[in-house]
Amino acid sequence: MSPVSRGFHRRRQDSAENAGRVPPGQYVTKDFPVLSAGPTPHTPLDGWSFSVGRPGRQKTWSWEEFRALPSEDVTVDIHCVTKWTKLDTVWRGVSVDTLLDLAGHDGPFAMAHCDGGYTTNVPVEDLTGGKAWVAYAYDGQPLEPEHGGPARLLVPHLYFWKSAKWVRSLELMDTDDPGFWENYGYHIYGDPWREQRYAGD
Amino acid sequence: MAGTALRGRLSPRPLLWQVAKVLAVAIETASVRTIMLDVPDWPGHQAGQHVDIRLTDGDYVAERSYSIASAPGEPVALTVERIDDGEVSPYLTDELRAGDDLELRGPIGGYFVWEPKDGGPLLLLAGGSGIVPLRSILRHRQRTGSTVPVRLLYSSRTLDDVIYRGELDKPAAGVEVFHTLTRHQPPGWSGYARRVDAALLAEVAWPAGMTPLAYVCGPTNFVEAVSQTLVQSGYPPQRVKTERFGGTGGT
């Protein structure tokens, strides 16, 4: 039972069209905040590649090969664990279904590895069935480096730290090992609708 | 403390909401307050961590994160800047007073933290209220008797916007404080008077060859520019820890 916050009055009102789209504890922002643990990497496209699979037997695409894969436009709501939610964000990217179909579904869990050393873990079933993309464009423009460009993982149904910026590979695994923030006490799965912000939530 | 024995990787201690009591509210600047709290079941924190706070109005709940301003071992203190069109910060800076209850949980975050064993030399770079977690680090260094050398570069709009000014002006052994005022400078100002750029960092930052450890906290534009310049001047990215206040910048 929450105590009353003496003298606190709600100022924000969700419009009717947003009803049911804002998870508990979140507020809607029109900005696109940037949150990262370190400096933004700037990887040249001719040195960029993307890999999927087990260590030692991965399928790898160059930037040109990756951009030649079938891609799709998606409009999704995104939810950051730092409390902001942004509605109707527009992305273009390659479905993870496409990548796994080409590389093989070789394990129930995945670890995203990124330039800069960031990692995050996601069950493969949360990356398949039209639920996740490797996105390279935002709002019709190439994805800016501070937002994860040249390409980032997009898993909008989980808190946004799972949508790893500067993603370079999906390593398939037998166990759901914790990634970077998951090792610092953030939730292993991160469902915003169940408010799974931190371990134990 | 009950539950401490359960801490560990396999059974993490859940971060439970608890009710803190406001001990005092101190005025830092026209728009910034420091809220000192009595948290009955506080497990302790590291310098640089933050808490979540929760406000309720009937069924409505608002949550936000705030950096902890106090050092480990000190009572929990939060320093909050009022965002005029915000929902939570004006309540914390203008309405909350000694004796009030405040719900919180934490501590949260374990990357943007410093312990004496992490060494240095330390380079602390703050933009505006980004000083808050860095102040916790400075106080922790002082309280633990660490002799790690520190340089702090603190960018504010005007002198009146400088948070913890009195505290930062007190000379501490091994700590050098540099201010830059980006919007307005008082007559006779001898500090820097522009946004942090490569030339300014070249004068203030430890040379990369000393393998310094950098903590950068502030608005997105500040953190992006500063961290990029440090990397270009030879700081390894993994020695540059960043915390961005994302709410006001970036598109």
Could you characterize the architecture of this molecule?
The complex is a heterodimer of chains A (201) and B (251). Chain A has helices at residues 63-67, 96-103, 180-183; strands at residues 27-28, 49-54, 57-62, 72-79, 84-95, 109-114, 119-123, 133-138, 141-142, 152-154, 167-173. Chain A is mainly beta. Chain A is globular, with a radius of gyration of 17 Å. In chain A, strand 6 (109-114) and strand 7 form a beta hairpin. Chain A contains three helices and eleven strands; from the N terminus they run βββαββαββββββα. Chain A has one domain (25-30, 43-50, 59-194): Oxidoreductase, molybdopterin-binding domain (Sulfite Oxidase, Chain A, domain 2, Alpha-Beta Complex), CATH 3.90.420. In chain A, the strands form two sheets. In chain A, strands 1, 4, 5, 8, 9 and 10 form a six-stranded mixed sheet that branches. In chain A, strands 3-2-11-6-7 form a five-stranded mixed sheet. Chain B has 251 residues and is of the alpha/beta class. Chain B has two domains: 18-108, Beta Barrel (Elongation Factor Tu (Ef-tu), domain 3), CATH 2.40.30; 116-244, 3-Layer(aba) Sandwich (Rossmann fold), CATH 3.40.50.80. Chain B is 18% helix and 32% strand. Chain B contains five helices and eleven strands, in the order E-E-E-E-E-H-E-E-H-E-H-E-H-E-H-E. Chain B has a six-stranded antiparallel sheet. The radius of gyration of chain B is 18 Å and the shape is globular.
